[in-house]
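Input.
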Amino acid sequence: MRIVLAFDSFKGSLTAAEACSIAAETLLALLPAAKVQSVPMADGGEGTAEALVTAAGGCLVPVSGVAGPLPGQRLTAAYGWLPNTRTAVVEMARASGLPLVPEPLRNPLRTTTLGTGELIEHALRHGALRLLLTLGGSATVDGGTGAASARGWHFFDRHGKPVRPGGEGLCHIARIAPPDAPPRTAQVEALCDVNSPLLGRRGAAAVYGPQKGATPEMVLRLEEGLANLARCILESLGTDVAALPGAGAAGGLGAGAVAFFGASLVPGAVAVARTAGLPEALRAADWVVTGEGCLDAQSLQGKVLTEVLRLAGRAGCRVAVVSGRVLLDAAQCLAAGIAECEACAPDATDIATAMENAPRLLARACGRLAPRLASPHAPPRITP
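Output.
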């Protein structure tokens, strides 16, 4: 029997690689004849670089002195490096993420993606031929102008002066100028875990601005600024980013990546699965076991589980899920194509306790699952 482990992270408690390791140790102890392969997964948000480095045998490249999201902030950040394909994995959250900004200082009018652009520039100097830019967890709503500035793009107001960095400068952009010298290039894919447009009720300012510290008044200013940026991009570069699905990800960095880096917007789980080799691993598998912190309706809307189910269906292998909590009922799981499902924590367990004991609870759940994997003709069991 061949089992592929394709866990996402259990946010706040286990990385995807740690979850795969715990599951592998448990299943091999109970099913010693099984062949188990780990392919840690992610959806393009935080943890993507680590998952791909683990799956593809890469490393993390630290870069010191990178700009943080706040003016004057400097930090050490890292990107993933996959040497076999000369692919760099730049998680924008490592340089421009919300956890880097203390709550009292969260203000997307001031925060910038400058450091993300510096990581991109370092990766290209390192020789990257392909670049995966993850768009989850940002502290910013600057439309990617900060990252573009780090790569040599210029943003001027109507007087010909450089505009202020961050969201507050977007309203004042009147002209966009390309880098003075041709920049280094690579194939760029921007990995989205949401398909939000840049503007409107589902856009970068309205939906995600408040999460980053924006007041209602700030949201209106940011929306106006992003609309102005979109107009300037269309006039200067001929690229229409206003309604592009995924353009609103990471405070509009999705739009900026398309306009300034020539990126294509890709569902994160799809790109991670392809880069990590999950389709090839599933071709010879009898089972794929996946999971995350909570199995709910969102898990079936473009997250890791969605892609695992799609690839497993094509490969003809069965899908088992082990998650911290299971909020889908048996009918929903079976309709989605999930053959087996185990919850790590009993319903009465509070979240803090479950997270603190995540390794032990995951091992126990995998232990309960093991005999079901060895009995493929047994009826499916969904345990909430």
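The two ends are 26 Å apart (CA to CA).
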